[in-house]
Amino acid sequence: MQESFSLNELYVQYTQGRLMQKDLEGSIFKTILEDPRRFGLYHWREEERADFASWIYPRIRSAISSYRENGSSFENYLGSAIRWGAKEYRSNIADNGVAEYAAWTVRIPDLYTREVEPEYMADEPEVSAEDPQPLIVVDCLEQSIARIKKNPRQLMMLILKCYCYVSDDFLDRIAEKTGIEKEKIKQCVDKLRAVRIKQDEKLRTMRERIYCQFYRCIIYERRLAVMEKNSTIALRMERRLDKARIRLAAMRKRFAGIRPVATNRQVADILGITKGTVDSSLHNLKSRWKNMLDECILN
Question: Where would I find the beta strands (DSSP E) of the chain?
Fold first, then answer.
């Protein structure tokens, strides 16, 4: 497009049928990129103008179809539409920046914790003699496993009860320690997961909603930090932030009251035994573990 051609002249050619609409749209697109002063975009970077031109392109077609000669020239009309679009685009970019800041605010501490690779224990954990507590716990675990190996059904109850924390790696290790076949354990765990698929999906959905609400609170805090204090919009945002925090606390409290483990009835159905057997076995196992831990610490 030559600089001598104004958008008004191009529009006249379009109305006379000497210029196709796609050619007019392309000329406007090119003008945004090569003549940014015409629309007040001279302070924008070239790549930013390119992104904006791509973003507003669908609106250009709508603006051409909606234009009516009612006192304002086509160029002024289109310039106004592009300037308002530029403000909206910048606002959206700012909101996305705030959202990205919120995401990285939560993510960065996790990245810090992963900078150093964790050292996993071997089969025989190395502990310091100066700190006897790890030795006590390991000794209790060994005694507990030795006793439970005599009652593999009780161990299966415990595994199924905490199925949501069971991984394939854990199955390999527990099968080696107890002598129960991995495929047998995995088959029971898969059956239980199929039974609890709706409950697990409900928990997952609730967890995602809590995450979204948490991010929303961070975004509100970030927006409030850049607003003029005691202004109307700042006071409105402050009220919105207070409501969001109250809702987040309520969602967390509700989620904390839901137990992710399987019910004793479900465990009993998978193993084909009565619920009372599962109740008494798990209760006895819990009591024995507590007593063993107390004895180890006292000794």
Answer: none
